[in-house]
């Protein structure tokens, strides 16, 4: 199974809960750390619901779902990561919050060879690495939403990542989780978001300009190009707060107008319309 048998996941939102679920299903002991008790309860419920859905769809036996749940501990104590061999950070796309988490994890995780990975969509891995005293053990491990469904993981070594860190993180994603890996340079957006985010922003600009309705923009791409969902529904799935944060860091990196968040996206985030997770985005989910 590889050398990693105990992992930590920081953040149990959309992504952290998915990463924790697929890892526990793969037979690994998982500690999940959330910011507070309410978020921890919500994360645990999200994982339980997703496992139940797997059982209802006949993809997983009830025994395997119970066994996966038994391998999961959800807590609010970062100290619970002390004995972990790999920790995957999946807190919100906010550099200050991530730097704080990496600094604290570095002091808490005892094994100096343990890997500290980030699921960031767009922030520089090198910057997160330099918040620790083990920059050679820091790597990007970027999963896709929904984690149980999407087969890809991007592996992003920074300029200071050791080769064996990249190799162990890659082996974890492929051999343990059964994902397919693509390697990307430490540039904002890596491979997939560098292509996807300008597309999502273009759809928002199109809606903002009155070019077409949200439904027609989405139907255009679903029925015309066989995408599984249209760009506005996809932005709602990703989260409009996350879409804006990713666009902002890509704009900061490249200074190209195609990465600039359009005013409609800014106002929706200001209004708390974060998409599916808040119940309202380009569509209503209540
Ligand atoms: N957990 C487990 N399985 C799930 C699931 C979940 N959360 N959501 C859907 N599924 C499974 C279903 O069980 C179903 O499986 P079967 O076909 O075997 O029955 C399959 O996925 C399809 O699900 P549904 O029929 O319920 O719904 P759908 O056909 O509308 O698919 C979708 C939903 C999987 C989200 C699909 O629309 C899709 O793939 N959309 C594109 C998502 C995408 O592009 N993600 C990348 C976002 S960008 C990103 O992640 C990077 C970033 O940094 C922002
Ligand atoms: P989210 O808003 O659903 O979840 C973030 C979680 O982090 C929340 O539950 C929050 O309570 C928790 N959190 C915040 N500060 C914390 C702390 N100090 N300690 C522990 N938990 C903390 O966000 P998400 O969509 O899961 O995104 C998480 C990360 O994954 C971001 O970096 C994002 O860019 C990346 N990502 C998102 C997607 C996506 O489609 N949403 C896809 C790939 C990668």
UniProtKB/TrEMBL annotation:
GO terms for biological process: fatty acid beta-oxidation. The record marks 142 as: Important for catalytic activity. Keywords: Oxidoreductase. GO terms for molecular function: 3-hydroxybutyryl-CoA dehydrogenase activity; NAD+ binding. Pathway: Lipid metabolism; butanoate metabolism. Residues 7-186 form the 3-hydroxyacyl-CoA dehydrogenase NAD binding domain. InterPro entries: 3-OHacyl-CoA_DH (IPR022694), 3-OHacyl-CoA_DH_NAD-bd (IPR006176), 3HC_DH_C (IPR006108), 6-PGluconate_DH-like_C_sf (IPR008927), 6PGD_dom2 (IPR013328), NAD(P)-bd_dom_sf (IPR036291). CoA binds at residues 50, 57, 121. Pfam families: 3HCDH, 3HCDH_N. Signal peptide: none annotated. Residues 189-285 form the 3-hydroxyacyl-CoA dehydrogenase C-terminal domain. Belongs to the 3-hydroxyacyl-CoA dehydrogenase family. This is 3-hydroxybutyryl-CoA dehydrogenase. The lineage of its organism: Bacteria, Bacillati, Actinomycetota, Actinomycetes, Pseudonocardiales.
